[in-house]
């Protein structure tokens, strides 16, 4: 305490001994070290009090400007605290002291200096200040996300709720200074480096991922306003590094995803912001009116960047919905009119010159995510939007790419369309849309690819055939075959073979009549090109062999399906018997459920 030089020497020696714990780069996972820094009880007596006074002196001298020696001391103190917090047993005690408030005060003043720096100033002048800011933010992370949950999420590793509950040491209580600090640092921040903005976003993400209590304190109207403003600013790159701006957008979206997941696990009295409010602002930004912008900004380069941001935002919707409380979040999305927003996005994007396809693909992915495994959501989409409308919107964008058509296939099976045999039909409507679109496709290869896949997925088992028949797919196929001049012969053969398979399941008189009419030609002596394949299909329908010949049956596919028996007083006598053959089809298995315990089917 009486010898500052000796104190600095001791701090230098301590930091040098444990330098491997100074992981200030948020982008990297912390290095695994066998050793741990010492506990507070093993440090010299009164050392924390001495360091608090040293830090306070640095804060008091900040207004006049710190000398180089004092700058070095303040950085050394922050490094010391980071190292100390890497022994997780020290986190709570360090968090209760006033160090964090002093460090935040200094960081705020330094960031103000960095924001006011002009381009004429030398970069070298900023280096010590920047170094302090980066270490200060890393110190905050050490307090509020001691297990580095955020870094693990950024690296692609999901920390489960169970894993979080097993974390022995809790993060320090969040200082009330954080929200004003975060808000203020993004005010008038045009000259602040993008990399430092990314560090601030990393810190916010770390606080939200570190623990629910701190997260709910940090997620406020002010911080949400900052995130939305940062996101809106990402389409205006000026002379900034495009990679850094793109990374800033990516981090902001990851923060919002983490926020939505945290809010889902909280009660209404704990929340300062509702998920519905966040989604309302999110969709408003996603569908922002670019036509109102000055023509100078609506250049080709800006258009490309704006669409890239929209694609990132659409992909984030899928990430948000990848959570344990998915049905609850799907309901919130439905109440936020997400379907209308997503369709409007497709309609508005027609004003752009190019890059439409990637936007359409991401929109279909987002729609699929909202409807995934939710009959209610599918019904809402059918009523509010309708597949006829989305077909017209997609068709208006021009010839579709293979990627877009494959995304519609994924929507139908709610998974990877290539996993035919594993995934059955979850949503038959996109299949009807694809059949209708076939004559409009100019590429014969795409026609053959789509029709071949449809033939496989629709005929994979009895359940798939029944689903397609109940959706009136036979009529849709016949209507498509009427445009035979636009269909490749192989595509037509695939559709007729599919029709034959579905017809063997069920074929009504109207459908049969339409099929026969299909073969009519204007020239009486000229045979229709479909005569031979259609006759084969009709023969296939008539041919009945084995167990597949049952014309009427009960479909007990769904988990709640059963046969209701009338009450006893309605029985015709004292008893009655009921006889039926039983056919056990193989269940479709989704990759996500293969790890779970298999269901046991029981017969009573």
Separation of termini? Answer: 83 Å
> Biggest β-sheet, characterized?
none
Number of helices: 28
**Helix percent band:** 55-70%
Q: So what's the overall shape?
A: elongated
List unreliable stretches of 5+ residues. 589-597
Instruction: Give the mean pLDDT.
Output: 86
* Structural class determined from secondary elements: mainly alpha
How many strands? 0
- Report the radius of gyration as a whole number of Å: 32 Å
**H/E series:** HHHHHHHHHHHHHHHHHHHHHHHHHHHH
GO molecular function: protein kinase binding
Domain Neurobeachin alpha-solenoid region: 298-541
Organism: Struthio camelus australis
Keywords: WD repeat
Question: What are the key terms here?
Answer:
single chain; 604 residues; mainly alpha; 28 helices; 58% helix; 0% strand; elongated; Neurobeachin-like 1; Neurobeachin_a-sol
